[in-house]
Amino acid sequence: MSEQVLPLLEAHDVTVRFGGLVAVDGVSANFVPGELVGIIGPNGAGKTTFFNAISGVQVPTAGRLIAHGHNLTGRGPHRFAAHGVARTFQTPRVFPDMPVAANIEFGLKFAGKRRRKYLFWGDEVGVPWALRDAASILSLIGLSAQAELPAAAITPSQQRLLEIGMALATRPKLLLLDEVAAGLTESEIEEMARLIRRLRDELDLTVIWIEHAVTTLLRHVERVIVLHQGRKIADDTPHNVVRNPEVIEAYLGDEMAEPSAEEEEVAA
Amino acid sequence: MTSRQFLIRDLLVLLAFTGWTLALPFYASEFVVSMALTCLMYVALSSSWGLFCGSTRYLSLATSAFFGIGAYTTAILLGQFSWVETIAIGAGMAVVVAVVMGAAVLHLRGTYFAVLTFGMTELIMHAVTYFEKTVTGTVGRVLTVVPERDTIYLTVLALAVLAVAVSIVVRRTRFGLALMGIGADEQRAQTLGVNTRLVKIAGFALTAGFAGAVGAAMAVRWTYIDPHTVFNPFIGFQTVLITLIGGVLTLWGPLLAAIIFSVLAESLRLQFPQIYLMSLGLLLILCVLYLPGGLASLRGETFKGWWNDSRDWTKDLRRELSGEKEREKQRLKRREKESHFV
Question: Per the CB < 8 Å rule, is A77 touching B190?
């Protein structure tokens, strides 16, 4: 490699075993600052388990995880959060009884573990303007009008946005999004994709995005990792990935031959 | 009301409560004062229990273990150390045990946690009994040096006020927020940066410290203590019941329920001990079914809601009994049939 950028997160041979089942089988990947990476794979490919491993929720059976030079293997999710790794969950897991704004404030309260520095009153050094407080995060994700409602009272798609807002409140460097577009309408998906690009471009976040709907994802990311039966079978640009015979095989071998047809359409 | 106004209100209520209980021994009879002492003991136990177990939803049955540890500390050390020192050591011992116990069982949830804490209480009780029998060759201890009755009252009062005050403060801190987050969704709280393990152990230890201190202070009420009296699981159960009935998430619920309970207990226990236990069970069932937020969540609207519910229910019942419902069903069926033919 010509340029040596210290990766935000390095996964070395991450393996997760549940009894006899190998959910993730020796996956290695590096994520450098500013990337927008997609992870795809047929059902049961180990996408979410891989996510759980790189966010500390699931301690890997084998392998190493290094965040910006710190070895975090086997540490709890709060250590990952402290090193700037934030995630959302497939089914929104907001605090239902708390108001929307309080949900965001929860993350803000615990984000300060990373040695806060103040310039003037409350102006923290190195925190993007858009993430300075709950109100600004709410306007970024477009939930300002719902700020005072209990989180259980907003719609599921708004809860998804709130999930992202909660993750942003930890002031992350790496944002892991688990199927944030699932179950959304076409226009909502576009909206979501625009938001994700904005987060990457304006807040300099690195984003890893899992999605089951391959078409949507391939249109928006710059690099795709394909998982199949727990293994990484491709790690390339969307253009090359859809031409990778192993990927086509994985999707055709699966009952759903449909996605690969869609992929061709995207590539065209 | 804003959060600051709530804080002022809570502190004022606490102040009034403190003043009233402080004045009690000056005008009330001995019976009332002894009842107030039991009441204050349960205020301290259930407020501190609710602080951790209520917000995190970790149902601990180990209160009697910490209570007993405190009581035994007093039995062994009082005489060599001063009253305040003894209580501090009792609380400290309970905290140490809670940290060890917490580290061992706090990764479990729900029933498993409850059962294990109960098991540990039994374990501690039997260990103490065994130790007494084989090493010191006694069962139980007689307390010879006992402080004055007023001292005991004031100590337990101070502990109760401290427990409520700590609850008021903790609710407004990051620590309290972390406890709430653990109760709502532990894993989510973790991914948002909460060191849940540390927070849980600290919360458990805080609760245990209060139980230990209360046990140390109350031990002198009995002049003779043995493991079965001070590790009595009933103390733990009663604490849980009082907190649940009062409202686990509320600040004043445990206090309210503790007062009601002590009055009920003292007035019924002597004449009708069975009725006391039955009414306790009945109240718990009613609370769980109709008032999940506890007594402290009672509002005007609650009664209105009950009233509306019961009105709807009787209306339905009347229709059912008069046969109107049956007729309506048949009408509907007939209409369906007709529309089918058309």
Answer: yes
Residues of B in contact with A77 (CB under 8 A): 187, 190-191
Domains and CATH numbers, chain B: 3-298 (1.10.3470), 302-341 (no CATH)
Domain with CATH 3.40.50.300 in chain A: 1-84+172-268
Instruction: Give the 3-state secondary structure of residue B129.
Output: helix
> How far is B146 from chain A, CA to nearest CA, in Å?
47
pLDDT tens sequence for chain B (342 residues): 678 888 999 999 999 999 999 998 888 888 889 889 999 999 999 999 999 998 898 999 999 999 999 999 999 898 899 999 999 999 999 999 999 999 999 988 888 999 999 999 999 999 999 988 888 777 778 887 788 888 999 999 999 999 999 999 998 899 999 999 999 999 999 999 999 999 999 999 999 999 999 999 999 888 888 888 889 888 898 899 899 888 888 888 899 999 888 888 877 777 777 777 787 788 888 887 888 788 887 787 888 888 888 899 998 888 888 888 888 888 888 888 877 765
* Ordered DSSP codes for A26-62: EEEEEE-TT-EEEEE-STTSSHHHHHHHHTTSS--SE
Structure token digits, residue A45: 């490919």
**A90-117 as b/e, with b when 16 or more CB fall inside 10 Å?**
bebbbbeebbbbbbbbbbbbbbebeeee
Distance from CA of B173 to the nearest CA of A (A): 10
* Global ipTM: 0.85
Residues of A whose CB is below 8 A from B181: 95, 106
Domain formed by A1-84+172-268, architecture: 3-Layer(aba) Sandwich (3.40)
